[in-house]
Design a protein that fits this description.
By secondary structure, this protein is an alpha+beta fold. It has a single domain, classed as Cytochrome p450, CATH 1.10.630. The strands form 5 sheets. The protein has a 5-stranded mixed sheet, covered by helices on one side. The protein has a 3-stranded antiparallel sheet with strand order 4-14-11. Helix 8 crosses helix 18, helix 14 crosses helix 15 and helix 16 packs across helix 18. The longest helix has 32 residues. It is globular, with a radius of gyration of 21 Å.
């Protein structure tokens, strides 16, 4: 498969097999899908000896693992990085590093804010925020779609929900963007990533202190007052939650919006349809074809056999929903980007008890983002020579997508 994901080249599968799957490899970040296709066909339980993990790539195996936390545990976190893996993961990943029933007890503290009814009620405000981000771009023929819009809107939404002052939104996003960056082949955080993490931690501690003294109508204030089994959350737990929600809101949602834009550039028919009323379909197929969320990790709690291979308790398993979304056993002709496709079985938001809490919000943000840009823009080109990908073992997307747009002579009303 070439860089745009459109064709499979002769002999490339052999090269993929020789190189192997490594989520820290920049070549994988550029285009992971040939690696996934090879694994689904030849090694549905793949072994990476150097990194000491196994990987599941088929749709059925991914779903089965995500549905079974008793066997595929979150207790060591969801990241393969050595510094993030282990029983200490709960300190940075909060309830993502918990199993039921503890996971459910903590998740329930905030789940009420993400119900379908609550999320639907946010639509007018999200449109206001989208239009505010687009306002300075209205008369510009060129701008960075990823940095100026796709990443900014979801960050604005989640920061407001958490009580972060508007004046701080852009700095929070800039630091969040640095968190998951890795050098090629390295699982260690670079200096920029460490510095960003420290700045965010310091900022969140101050934010919690401010809201403790002057609570508002926001999720952070609610968490400060919340209790689990009669015990209030610690400051460290609340800060971990802020890291979790800010990262999820910024990373996955913003990068999937950018991936939709990129795939529309590759396919003019998709671009035209998406900008002219089919934003929801554009979102759905992008979530299947090229979702930002690529990988999550689990720990086996007992010896088990998968695809005829004995795995020991404690084994690390990388689960690849982005590969499952291109499994030909579930999605016919999976390498074809199709706005009319049935995406009811996509697993971009996970499955089971750890299904993404903010899935409904993310879908709404993505749809509104593309509807609102489509109301102003009739077409666009991307300067790929100056585009820049994010390099993360978990997230796929762009840090920069410089674009040249054609503005509509008369802005149209989005299909709300």
């Amino acid at each position: 498969m070439d860089a745009d994901g459109l064709t499979i080249q002769d002999g490339l599968e052999d090269a993929v097999a020789e190189r192997g799957y490594d989520p820290f490899d920049y070549k994988v970040h550029e285009d992971p899908y040939p690696f996934y296709a090879w694994m689904r066909e030849h090694a549905p339980l793949y072994r990476n000896e150097e990194r000491n993990f196994w990987a599941l790539s088929r749709h059925a195996d991914v779903v089965a693992a995500l549905k079974n936390p008793a066997l595929f545990s979150n207790r060591n976190g969801i990241s393969l990085e050595t510094e993030l893996w282990g029983p200490h993961a709960v300190k940075t990943s909060f309830f993502l590093a918990m199993d039921p029933p503890e996971h459910g007890a903590h998740r329930s503290l905030v789940s009420g804010a993400f119900t379908l009814r609550r999320v639907a009620a946010l639509e007018p405000r999200i449109r206001e925020l989208a239009r505010a981000r687009l306002e300075p771009l209205r008369d510009q023929q060129s701008f960075d779609f990823a940095a100026n819009y796709a990443a900014a809107l979801p960050n604005d939404v989640v920061c407001e929900m958490l009580g972060v002052p508007a004046a701080d939104w852009d700095q929070v996003r800039a630091d969040t963007d640095q968190l998951n960056q890795r050098d090629d082949g390295s699982e260690d955080r670079g200096e920029n990533s460490v510095a960003a993490a420290l700045r965010l931690a310091y900022y969140f501690v101050r934010l919690v202190g401010d809201l403790r003294r002057h609570p508002g109508d926001d999720l952070t204030s609610a968490l400060i007052q919340a209790e689990v089994n009669g015990v209030k959350l610690t400051e460290a737990q609340i800060v971990a939650f802020l890291f979790l929600v800010i990262s999820a809101g910024n990373e996955s949602t913003g990068k999937t919006i950018g991936n939709a834009w990129y795939n529309g550039w590759l396919r003019p028919d998709v671009q035209r349809a998406g900008l002219n009323g089919r934003a929801a379909d554009w979102v759905r197929e992008t979530l299947r074809y090229d979702s930002a969320s690529q990988m999550t990790a689990r720990c086996l709690t007992e010896d088990t056999v998968i695809h005829g291979i004995q795995l020991p308790a404690g084994a690390r398993v990388a689960i690849l929903p982005a590969s499952g979304n291109r499994d030909e056993r579930v999605f016919p002709d999976p390498e074809r980007y199709d706005l009319d496709r049935d995406t009811s079985k996509l697993i971009s938001f996970g499955h089971g008890p750890h299904h993404c809490l903010g899935a409904a919000l993310a879908r709404l943000e993505m749809r509104i983002a593309l509807e609102e840009i489509g109301a102003l823009v009739s077409g666009y080109e991307i300067d790929m020579a100056n585009a820049r990908r994010v390099h993360s073992p978990h997230q796929r997307g762009f840090a920069a997508l410089p674009s040249v747009v054609s503005h509509r002579s008369k802005p149209r009303t989005p299909d709300a």
